[in-house]
Structure formats: C-alpha cells, structure tokens
Design goal:
Blueprint lengths: L1 E2 L9 H6 L4 E3 L5 H17 L1 H9 L5 H4 L9 E5 L3 H12 L3 E5 L6 H9 L3 E3 L2 H6 L3 E4 L13 H6 L4 E5 L8 H9 L3 E5 L16 H4 L3 E3 L8 H20 L3 E5 L1 H7 L10 E5 L7 E6 L5
Parallel strand pairs: 1-2, 3-4, 3-6, 4-5, 6-7, 7-8, 8-9, 10-12
Antiparallel strand pairs: 2-11, 11-12
Helix pairs in contact: 2-5
C-alpha cells in the first residue's frame, strides 16, 4: 500500500503490519506544489485578492479599499517544519525579500544545515521565540500526537498583532476554536488549505466557520494537486511499488535514468528514502541511490 505524499497518518499501519502488508509513502514529490500554494495564500491575504475578484465580478470598483496593503518586503516568516516543503517555501519567500527563521534542533543532517545556511535562515531557540518574532508563521509539520493543536490559544496570543498564519500541513495542527476567537478579535489573519473537519471526498456540502471568516483565505486541501506533482508522484510510486515487493529494508540501487526521472535531489539523504512500515520494528527504510552505471 503506497501513500502518495508525506506521512502515513491516513492509513492504519498497525492493521497493515498484522496482515503483512507493507505501507510506504513517497515524500517530497509534491513539495513544490505545496510551497507554491503557500505563497499564493500569503499573497492573497496581503493583497486581499479573493475579495478583489469577488467585487470585480459583482461589478464593484473599490480601489480605495483594496489599495491598502502592508506588503511583504522586509517582513519575517517563521517556518515550523523545515523539511522538503519548508525549504521550498523558504526559497520562494526569500525571493520576495522576506527574512526567514525556523527553530534550531539537534539531529539535522549536514545537508539540511548547509541548505539553511545558504538560504540565510536564522534559527530561534524555541517555538515561542519564533512565533513572537514573526510577521508570518507557516506550518509544515506532520500530524502526530506532538503536533495536535500545536497552534492553540497560547500560541496565538504570542503572535504579533496582525500576523498571518499559514497552514498547508494538517488540519488538526490548529485548535480551530482558538483560531476563530483570535480572528474574531482581529489579532491575526489566516491562509488555510486544511481543516480538522474537512470532507474526505472530492465534492461535498460543507460549512466551516473558519472558511467563511472574512479574515481567512481558504482553499480545498489542494496543496499537492497540480499536474506536475501528480506526474512526479506517479513516477516514484511505481518505483516504490516495485521496491516494496522486492525488499524489506536496506539499500536498493536503481539506474541513473530512473533517478533522473524522479527529479533533482531524490538521491540525497534528505529526499532519497522510502519509508516502509510493515513486518519489522524499527521501521525498515529503503534508501534509493543511483547506480554508478546505467542498469
């Protein structure tokens, strides 16, 4: 069973293990798509693009109202979750002249440290420090017991007045009741692609107080939904299916041709692993790297 994207939280991996079914995910293939939407949400909030479009389509010209925006140049973005998506968001935000910061932690690979240095990312000593010193906070963390309601009342209270919260990760990372209160009080603005109670189907009737709030730009959990991302996921998913059937862990050599098809950086430590959850504990890992000669 293959999860096309980051995380396996939507799959009962324990039940799969009991039935000797391997579960693997293919992280990183949709990272650019999610990063692009993150920046789109940020721009939409700052320039009130959705409201602009709605009024223009309704026949209303209101340059007086919509001509007021702070702008992004020189602002500070705090990124929580400095993985493949977080780094791509940092690259794009830096191109806008936004200062980037994240949270220092032990155990980052040398490649990740070097990349953070290259992008000029400042490391804060704690989440609290990052939140209090950021104009924008962007969430790119996995769903887990540790991240559930990471954004709670105390987190929101530390945010700067008028700060922007972006969530393209998982809905339950945010305490939606606490966020709604902060929005009602005008303390924050938010760009949300994920919701705790979002429908599981592609089309449904759904009413969310958060999505309807005027301080929110909401999208339909479409972060990974671009044709480019789906083609990339399809390529690596086919490879993952083969590897799952052939091995239970260790290192697998694939041809340089296949590595090239997977995209730049797949054969690096940060992006060249396919996580398998199945028979063994600890979870076995297939590390994919290019063979020295074409196979």
């Amino acid at each position: 069973m293959i999860r096309a994207g980051a995380g396996t939280n939507t799959i009962d991996t324990d039940a799969a293990a009991e039935r000797a079914v391997y579960v693997c995910n293919v992280p990183g293939r949709n990272a650019a798509a999610v990063a692009e939407l993150t920046m789109g949400l940020l721009l939409a909030i700052d320039r009130r693009i959705a409201d602009n479009v709605a009024d223009a389509r309704d026949g209303t010209w209101d340059k007086k109202t919509y001509g007021k925006a702070e702008g992004l140049l020189g602002s500070t973005m705090g990124i929580l979750g400095l993985g493949s998506i977080g780094f791509l968001v940092a690259e794009r935000a830096a191109a806008f002249g936004i200062r980037i910061q994240s949270v220092a932690r032990e155990g980052r690979s040398a490649a990740a440290v070097a990349r953070a240095d290259e992008l000029g990312i400042t490391m804060c000593g704690s989440v609290e420090e990052l939140v209090a010193s950021s104009d924008i906070v962007s969430l790119h963390v996995p769903a887990s017991a540790e991240t559930k309601h990471l954004v709670d009342e105390a987190f929101l209270a530390r945010m700067r007045p008028g700060a922007i919260l972006l969530n393209t990760s998982r809905g339950d990372v945010v305490d939606e009741a606490a966020l709604l209160t902060a929005l009602d009080e005008g303390r924050v603005r938010a760009g949300l692609d994920v919701f705790d109670d979002e429908p599981g189907s592609g089309h449904a009737d759904w009413g969310s107080p958060l999505a309807k709030h005027p301080g929110v730009v909401a999208t339909h959990h479409i972060g990974a939904s671009t044709s480019q991302a789906q083609r990339a996921i399809g390529t690596v998913t086919n490879l993952a299916a083969h590897l799952c059937s052939e091995a239970g862990g260790g290192e697998v050599l694939v041809s340089q041709r296949v590595v090239a098809a997977l995209g730049p950086g797949f054969d690096t430590e940060a992006r060249g692993e396919i996580q398998l959850k199945g028979f063994q504990r600890p979870v076995p890992t297939l590390r994919v790297r290019g063979a020295q000669t074409p196979a």
